[in-house]
Structures
1.
Amino acid sequence: MSLLRKLTEKPWTTTGQLEELPDPYVIAANTKRTALFVFLGVVSSLFFLFVMAQHQREALPDWQPITALPSILGLNTLLLIGASLAMQYAKAAADGGNLAGLKRGFVAAGLLTAAFLVGQVIGWQQMTATGQVIQVNPANAFFFLLTGAHGLHLVGGLYVWARNSVRVLRGFGQDDADQARELRLSVELCTTYWHYLLLIWLVLLGLLLVT
Amino acid sequence: MAYVAIADRDHEQHLHDPQTFITKYIWSQDHKVIAIQYSLTAIFVGLVALVLSGMMRLQLAFPDVFSFIAPIEYYQFITMHGMIMVIYLLTALLLGGFGNYLIPLMCGSRDMVFPFMNMLSYWVYLLSVIILLASFFVPGGPTGAGWTLYPPQAITDGTPGAGWGIMLMLASLAVFIVAFTMGGLNYVTTVLQARCRGMTLMRMPLSVWGIFVATVLGLLAFPALFVSAVMMVFDSLLGTSFFMPAILDRGEQTAFDGGSPILFQHLFWFFGHPEVYIVALPAFGIVSDLISTHARKNIFGYRQMVWAIVVIGGLSFIVWAHHMYVSGMNPYFGFFFATTTLIIAVPTAIKVYNWVLTLWRGDIHLTVPMLFSIGFLFTFIHGGLTGLFLGNVVVDLPLSDTYFVVGHFHMVMGISPIMVVFAAIYHWFPKMTGRMFNQTLGKIHFWLTFLGAYSIYLPMHYLGILGVPRRYYSMGTTDFVPESAQAMNIGITYSAILVGVVQLVFLVNIAWSIFRGEKADPNPWKANSLEWQTPDTPPKHGNWGPDLPVVYRWAYDYNVPGAPEDFIPQNTPPDALHPAGRDHGKAH
């Protein structure tokens, strides 16, 4: 039933009508997917507001763009794109029942993400080494704020990744369909989250480059 | 295919079942226990805020009499009173308390979908309350920046609590937002994914709709407060200039340069206005169910009521700058926000008409919950109408920062939701505890609170029109304010103290009834929604015994012609009413 039809139901005319509920596993999976999407909504709101704040702050006369963005940001971006691709590869492998591929992709995604975070810290050091500390100008302040907020979200992602990678490395038996299904769902949710954080990073990077 | 709920699978059920006193009542993952923990904490901290308001009133009525209320304390009391009431009492009680209690029971679920995260939500909320209250005990005391925490003064020396106080406040808010997000993810996901069979979206009671939409608003709006809190902490601790302009502090140039206090106001009110509806929408939903149940009549215009909740929720995100008419904004900007603000009156008025039309020719039972619900209609209409004044830029400009505003917002988002909170506590008390409260004490509580609240806030509108400014510690010599204003202030204070003391009647009634109240019928109000149909009262862990309920109808089948009783619970199949299959054409 479409959402529009659901929301225009006249409940006083449908007394006694019942619909079949889907399989419990479908419900369980949809519950986790829904929760992730709602959480991504919260994350979007957070970053949208950070970006709007920067947009407003930029309009004030004392705003000067960052003189030199840390050179490592390009490499970092490639690392994060790599992490996202590895996650996608892990998901495809999980869907195809390819356990070895799943392990490779999933572990690689986490390591690439950790490398990205290390790279971001190096980026911060490059900034501060050249005297571009947070107080110097509002653009710097936003640079540290936005990269920090994005990094913290990835740290949260890595926590989930670490918990799941134990299960991924342990793998699942040939006939344990339940476990395989749950693992596939976890990898799917991680993939969604990673793609989304990559998207946010690209938007933030674009913003850093144009201002 | 037979439907097996997730929590019905044996192994999971065992995992969740509480074994000891500690897992049952302290580290509980049961939504009902968490709801009560949330409610008790919120009521406790609300009583602190009530005492603070009493002290403010004492100062206003009898300036210079109470030596322990100096201007510094007065501003600290204002700030803490406002913030506690709005966030730590109302938001926590309506969503953390009633949201937790009602969503799984009304939707026919075993529990929230993520019980562990739900438990964590409460404990993190408690942590935020502790951080907040800790600010009373740090050097400099709590922040006195006003509940809106506007920079630059919030973090500039000279404002009470500009050091520790404001940092603890911002930390506490950030922690609260984390707690709310964990709870909110649960509420939204449970409503979307864990309803029992037959509970379509449009068969949900309006309480669930109100709480659901309010939670969505909270999830999208609280990040604005989070962002502004983080940026203010940066300004204060790291010396950035997000909000702090170039400023002279006692003749010395500070290091701040070029920041925008107006930016903070935009962020704050982008959260602050939806916050009004985060509090109001659950109240709207709950009061709809209560009016329908106690008037023994289906809610008038159910679908309009649902859509109005959704539309109000949507509109609440594009009206925030009506709190900033005096900030020097572009007049066209003000015109836009005045327009959107007044448009909200349309869905809100639909709701008010529908409540009144539900009462119209209903079989009204003047029970305690019903009295409070009708009381809400008065206070809400009153507060809503003064909102029309303040929503217009030209009327707002002279009234801004006067007691008219104080009267307005206390009526619309202080007294009105509190009326519903009391109504809801009295309504669901028999289900929560299995015992009945004392009706006479409940009625005394209602009349004194309702009339007392009116005698506090109605005169404030008049003071506002006289031009009495809000936030002033004492009036001093102010030519345009007549002497009689002070007499009115004294009257308001007496009423406020009366209303404050009367709450003891409520507390005593509740405390006594929990242990000594008469055993309650499982469905004392003869209500239709699922929470009244549980096999046990109070409901046990898992709510429904071995089998989940199946829902065949909406929650408003009161006085259906031909039915054996004047109510038909949601889980009653059509055949059960009319074994011969005559259901007046309603069954399919």
Note: Residues 83 and 109 of chain A are 4 Å apart (CA to CA).
2.
Amino acid sequence: MKRWSTLVALSAIAAPLVYGLIAIPPRGAAPPWRDLAAAYGAGNGVAAVVLGARLYDTLLEVLVFALAMVGVRYTLHPLGRWREPAIPERGVVREMADVLLPVVVVFSVYLAASGHLGPGGGFPAGAIAGSGLLLLAMAKGVERLSRELHEGTLELLKYGAIAVLLVLGMTGIPLGPRGSGFLVLYNLLIGIEVTIGTWVVLHHFAAHRGEI
Amino acid sequence: MAGLAAAALGIGLVILGFGALALRRSLLWKLLGLNVASGGAILFLVALSHRPGARPPLVGYPADAPSADPLPQALVLTAIVIHFATLALSLAYAVSLTERLHTQETERIEEAAEEEMRR
């Protein structure tokens, strides 16, 4: 009974979507994004939209991201701390982390710094740097990496990055396009923010699992 | 038409995810189904930004060639990050709930909630 009613509901959702897909009119050329990109000094249409015309959207999104990370932290923190079994060194992973980590970090900084000219940007850069931290955590153990990273400094860096981003961004729309240097700055700050957010998720999900 | 196949795949993923959301009993499976549905919506939007023979929206390509629409791609960029953040938050809540009730079955979670309301 439940299965059939679910099937009916799902086809009721699917039918208009599929009809819209079949009856879709041939789409015209893309809007003239080249003028927008030239005005903001970007070489990438997506960066011109995200960091230029729709900058407030991006700022609020970064704010939502930071809020969700704070929520993860304070939801998982009261749970019991999971004692990590003491494994001295994980040979292969450790060696590979030594080889791969410089490449990952350089690539992530490159993506953040050149995101306004080509494919890239702050969000992918932050995700890549975060997965570099994941690799390091697998090699060293989460607890040791957490002690080496100085959580207090990370918190300060995270909230400082958001504050600078909000102050710079709020003046962004009224003052109009201000050249490509600001796009690089936005991308780097977003990259820092996303990296630390990814680390917070990784650390808290690994260290506070509770007892089930 | 190119791009329509990807849009159809996106719709399929949304239906699959909603199906898992409705039929599975475990909270974790429901969250993962929602995740799959969200991925389908993202794929649908990206497919709609495609044009026949389109190049990526970068300045280096010749100006007279057709290019993909950058606006849906920009929307999707924000959607992906929000998707990640909300998934992490909901999984954290699921972990916390499991710690308290020692179950992930939604029916038993509802029973426990009703019992708590009566008290």
Note: The two ends of chain B are 60 Å apart (CA to CA).
